[in-house]
Amino acid sequence: MSVFSTIISRITCILALVLVTVGPAFSKAEEASSVSEPFQPSEVILHHVLDDHIWHFWDGHFGTLYLPVIVHSAERGLEVFSSKNFYDEHHNLVSFNGYTLDHGHITLNGQPVFDISITKNVAMLFINTALLIGLFLAAAKSAARNTGKAPKGVQAFLEPIVVFVRDEIVKPNIGHHYEKYLPYLLTLFFFILFGNLLGLLPGAGNLTGNIAVTMTLAVFTFIITNVSGNKDYWKHIFWTPGVPLPLRIVILPVEIVGVFTKPFSLMIRLFVAITAGHIVLLSLISLAFIFQSVTVGLVSSLIVLFINLIELLVAGIQAYVFTLFTSLYIGMAIAEHEHH
Fold first, then answer.
1. What is the pLDDT of residues 138-188, one digit of tens each?
2. Cα–Cα distance measured from residue 42 to residue 279, given in angstroms and rounded to the nearest whole number
């Protein structure tokens, strides 16, 4: 009963934070829409889902974090400046020193540049990484101090999850060589889990809903899986045993395509699940401002509360699924088969 009450109290705190943070932003948007132009839900949703060179929390310059722009061009070389230079006092886009920002893309005198700026998702990546490093360093120090004793503090929170990933995901799917891949798979699980959870906070960036991030994670899995593949793995792909020769001609392209579709499915699954959840939540919140009705606002708020609780579950499930399939692919690549 105490665990249940703790969960309820934490959910209440989260809801209060959502109301305090998101409420003023949408109310100002509604106020602005009543004065100048109609409320555009697509702009609000896309602004949250897509990456950007600014981090917008609420209306006005004080509610916007202007991120550093880092660009390289053959004409000027490497240049670093604040993204604030792209906006005037009314927060309208302007050109700066020949540079133009249009739909997230920077050009110099109409020509594309090499953009390595710290965007909103990159900043979220740094925050996620710093949080992971800080928590696990604290857990490691706690484990060193409490050797032979019951875990405490951060260690007590993280250790059961680590044991679960090791014993229920990695070890059953990889087998007796699982220790070699455990550090990567633990990092993968916690990176996705924390990224999913942080993305649900008000004003946060859509880190794990960015297809570039999910593609990078999938590429890591692709490289590790195929580099680790033994001769049986590659033999089953290029010369499947026990199959007649004419049928092998048909199976060969299917197996080769399968090598690439496995990481592709990982990339798309995580991207779609997280992005779709954010779009649904923001769409429901926007209904109150589209219909300008208190009744619609109350109903949509109740539905958003329910979906938010589901999104907390989805955050864990997606981390679990990505790690599970990665473990399964690695286990299939290093498994030794007996042929008779």
1. 999 988 888 878 888 889 999 999 999 999 999 999 988 899 999 999 999
2. 9
Check: CB of residue 151 under 8 Å from CB of residue 143: yes
* Distance between CA atoms of residues 155 and 143, nearest Å: 7
284-290's contacts with Cβ under 8 Å and 24+ in sequence apart are 285/22, 285/26, 286/39, 286/41, 286/44, 286/45, 288/26, 289/26, 289/29, 289/30, 289/33, 289/39, 289/41, 290/39, 290/41
For the whole model, what pTM was predicted? Answer: 0.83
Closest CA to 173 of 249, 225, 133: 225
| Average pLDDT of the chain, as a whole number | 85
Pick from 173, 168, 216, 167: nearest CA to 192: 216
Edge-to-edge strand list for the sheet holding 68-73 = 77-82, 68-73, 114-115
User: Domain spans of the chain?
Assistant: 2-119, 121-334
CA angle (60, 62, 68) in 5-degree steps:
105
